[in-house]
Amino acid sequence: MKGSNRKIKVVVAMPGLDCHDRGIIYLSHVLKEAGMEVVYLGKFNTPEYIVNTAMEEDADVIGLSYLNDHLYMIFFPKVVELLKEKGCSDICVIAGGRIIEEDRPKLLELGITGFFGQSTPTRDMVQHIENRVKRERWKQ
Amino acid sequence: MGSKEKIKSTRRFDVCPVTETSAGIPLKEVYGPQDLEGVDYKNEIANPGEYPFTRGIWNNMYRGKLWTRRVFTGLGSTADTNARYKYLLGKGASGLYCFGDTITHQGIDPDHPLAQGYAGVSGVSIVCLQDMYDLFDGISLEDVSVSFNNPCMAATVVYSAFVAYAQDMGYDLKKISGSILNEPIHLVYSMFETNAKPLDLAAKLATDVIEYSIKNTPRWHPIAPNAYDMHEKGANAIQEMAFTIAIMEEYIQRMIKRGYDIDEFASRVNVFGCACDIDFFEEICKFRAARRVWAKLMKEKYGAKKPESCRLYLSVHTSGNSLTVQQPVNNVARVTLESLACVLGGLQSFDPAGYDEGYYILTEHSALTSLNIHNILAYESRVASVADPLAGSYFIESLTNKMEEEMFKVINKINDMGGAIKATELGWIGSEMDKELIKEQKEIEEKKRIIVGMNEFIVSKEEEVPIEVGRDRPLEEQMTTSKKREDKIKKLRETRDKRKTKDALENLREGAGKGEGHNLVPLMMESLRAKATLGEILGVIREANGASYDPYKILQYSL
Lengths: 140, 559
What we know:
- The structure holds two protein chains of two kinds.
- Chain A is α/β, with parallel strands linked by helices.
- Helices cover 44% and strands 23% of the residues of chain A.
- Chain A has five helices and five strands; from the N terminus they run βαβαβαβαβα.
- The longest helix of chain A has 18 residues, at 122-139.
- Chain A starts with 8 loop residues before the first strand and ends with a helix.
- Chain B is α/β, with parallel strands linked by helices.
- Chain B has a domain at 55-275 and 406-559: Alpha-Beta Barrel (TIM Barrel).
- Chain B is built from 22 helices and eight strands.
- Chain B has helices spanning 2-11, 41-45, 78-90, 102-106, 129-135, 154-168, 187-190, 199-216, 227-232, 237-257, 262-265, 280-301, 307-310, 330-344, 364-380, 394-417, 420-425, 428-445, 475-495, 498-512, 521-529, 534-544, and strands at 68-69, 95-98, 145-151, 177-182, 220-221, 271-276, 313-318, 349-351.
- In chain B, helix 14 (330-344) links the parallel strand 7 and strand 8.
- Chain B is globular, with a radius of gyration of 24 Å.
- Chain A binds chain B through residues 16-19, 21-22, 25-26, 29, 44, 68-71, 73-74, 98, 100, 118-119, 121-122, and chain B through 102-103, 105-106, 114-115, 117-118, 121-122, 191-192, 194, 232-234, 321, 324-326, 358, 360, 434, 437-438, 441, 445, 454-455, 472-475, 478.
């Protein structure tokens, strides 16, 4: 189980057919450098596959990225919804890419915990993950 | 306190901190005659229009013909795109650009289960022959050149549809001009790899387009490899050109195997679609060096005798990665610099990115500004009057030499591995690109690369001057656009003469099983005329070659 000393495990994935994966390639590198374990799913995933992988891998975090268009407003909520359905809301979901300002409140409300797009310092993301995971592990 | 801090922060920017190019070539403080010692002008540099074409491919360059002035287009329905084409042609554009949407790139149809929400969203959807009629309604194909951005395998179908349309409309195929991206190998590490599997089949189909085109559409450029995407995914300026040239060698060798002499086709496979990033001098020298490398390869390795075989046409979309979403107006300055590098680098065609490219597909205003960057450079600034005006500069010639040397090193390494397909399958090219990407991002984060408004000279949201940028279509609208496309294709499937479609597809299937030497373009044209769709055509070809009908393994052949 997720013992408090276990390495933080992050599933990194892009849902749908968006191909702009520059961000997740770099962020996966950053997460590894920060001492986390990365399960890299890359492009072209369905929300179901992302959630199932996160459960099988007993991940702490799902990092979603989307840039090309507006469909993230279907995929991201779906991921969160599936996690709830399966009783895995302890898995923290963060998002990156190009998430427009107007959509953010709604996504936060649904349970996405933070946005880390172009020009956010990566240490902010690392810190956010560490804090969230620490909190979740305390709860247990 | 406040003023003291200000002085401190300005002093930090008092000196130029840059000591190397983006690709890591060290830069001296000053260059002189000693940097060009031993350089043979006649053989290494030569006049513009002369081998090895370092200084450009024509002797009088832009006095003879200006670069083609294109602007990024491709939005929504074929009718929307057609309207934008007419608008741009009326404003001085001399070529049209057609960017495919996500699913066309993937080679799947709008009614594919994974296509929901994607059809016609960030580009134009081309699936059937009717789409060509809608796209080019009222535009004479003999008078403008059309540049399609579709990669193989979908490119084979798009090209076949374009030629079938041109033929059915009565155009003289010998007069139509333009290009299609076509090249599939780059997809493996840059974009929609599902469209390029199996890679060997994709390369075969790309070669079919080349072969058909040199015989039937002699003014068309049947392959325009995508160096751009590789650059945007990390490849530095040296790798960008070297990888692309190595990739092109794969097709050159296939064509030679099919029995063609290099001089029969080299002058048709010599257009590269590159990026032009913000490192001004490096980009100029990249273009000059790439022309020389290409010329030497054609002549020395492949024995080309005609000068046209040694000319490399370069076309550019200025780098989207170099733009920021912060203060979009700053992008006009970036794009202007990049466009100037294109002119000074002697390019044949380029499209300046829109200042709002970081948001979405350009607004009309942003597209017009891009077009006017062309116009200002071409007609106002006088920069285009003299061919290769930077030649002879100690720095420029020396950096060009260095880049040529480095490009050859990379090309030789790939050849040692057994060519670009092998180097791709081994994962070498991809991992080299990842390394560069990570290095670049790190430098941005550590402010070793300064990007104004993003990691330095940042203004708050309140200080930013508001400007209209391309907006995402609201989600509902995106879904509706896609649904309309889906319905249109479903209707096509219902109303067509199914037996005719099936017969044509079965003919294609039979042909597709006949191997490398059997060109599939004519059979694809017949399938398109029988109202078969992109997904069906590629599916049948894939099946005949032992792969799944649907790249995502969801759909089955059902005619």
